[in-house]
TrEMBL record:
Protein name: diguanylate cyclase
Alphabetical list of PROSITE patterns matching this protein: GGDEF
GGDEF domain mapped to chain residues: 200-332
EC number(s) given by UniProt: 2.7.7.65
GO molecular function, one term: diguanylate cyclase activity
InterPro entries: Diguanylate_Cyclase, GGDEF_dom, Nucleotide_cyclase, Rev_trsase/Diguanyl_cyclase
Domain of life: Bacteria
Catalysed reaction, written as an equation: 2 GTP = 3',3'-c-di-GMP + 2 diphosphate
Named cofactor requirement(s): Mg(2+)
Gene3D superfamilies: 3.30.70.270
Amino acid sequence: MPNQSADTLLQSFRNKVTRNIVWAGAITQLLLAGVQVWLVHYIQAAVLLAAAIVLAVIAYWYRSKRIPDVWRVIFMMLLTSICFASIRTNGAIGVYWAYPLLVASFFMFRDGFAIALASVVTIVMSAAALLYMPVSDGWRITASLLVILVLGSVFVVMLGRMQKLLHQLVVTDTLTGLQNRHRLNNVLSQLIHNFRRYHRPASLIMLDLDHFKLLNDKHGHLFGDQMLKQLAARLKATLRINDQLFRVGGEEFLVVMPETELEEAVKVAEKLRLAIANTPFDGKDAQAHLTISIGVAQLRAEQTWAEWINTADTALLEAKRKGRNQVCKAESYTPTA
Ligand SMILES: Nc1nc2c(ncn2[C@@H]2O[C@H](COP(=O)(O)OP(=O)(O)OP(=O)(O)O)[C@@H](O)[C@H]2O)c(=O)[nH]1
């Protein structure tokens, strides 16, 4: 199971981009300090050297930590101010830095916030160009900055939509439309956190179709698929809104139940069992009587999510062993190791 969601990956990408920009800033300051030494401007050289050291320390400090948003905004505003000052002093030479700065804000921040910050950078840079450069140049620079702002904003919006879509595809089972096991890790970890911190109970229901192979062999795989879809819909319709249903294997499903003690979870499991066993399923060309076997486990102290799933799985095997179409509960905690 992947531990990192698409969101975390993008966040760590932004972090890396920011850190590399800080490194680039440190190296640039160092080079400029060298130029000042060559020009025999020792005070300016010392100031630039100090700035290079500060930036290098920040980049090193955050080599493994996430740079807080507020620091990234401050850093961006600092660069914008330096760029503004550079345009004021050096004219066109300072403008060259406005473009990478604008592009960087799209990489360093997300969605609307990136667009808002890029807009601020555009306004400040345009103001500098209009104030301190010939008017015709100032307008041209403003127009080109606006083009980059629009293109960058479109890029950020499309990236955000693509990210959502990809995330949806990764966590969704295409046949049933249920969540798959990729999101399970996060959901269970959260419940374990709530249990350890606030003593909130939680239970798992692990269920598996009985003799599904026989059904596939008799009616074909497509019929089996129809059954899985209908089964998922019926399970979902029977569950409460707070319970989350996952398809974790071919014909294996898992219900995650926050705020639920074992006995209450067993009642829900029994309700699910009856909902499946009592009403036949209608396929395209035939009807099928399905049954499910169920294992139920409440989260116990010090269990990891893998151990918790394992106890539910053991109870499910017990239900299969006892003859199927029944609910078994995990009475005691059995560690995996
Ligand atoms: N149609 C269909 N069948 C699937 C899918 N995923 C797994 N299966 C089938 O599910 C069957 C599972 O077989 P077994 O593990 O032997 O389990 P079973 O026949 O249900 O027997 P018990 O679990 O012991 O009651 C296999 O035939 C798989 O091919 C799927 O997405 N669609």
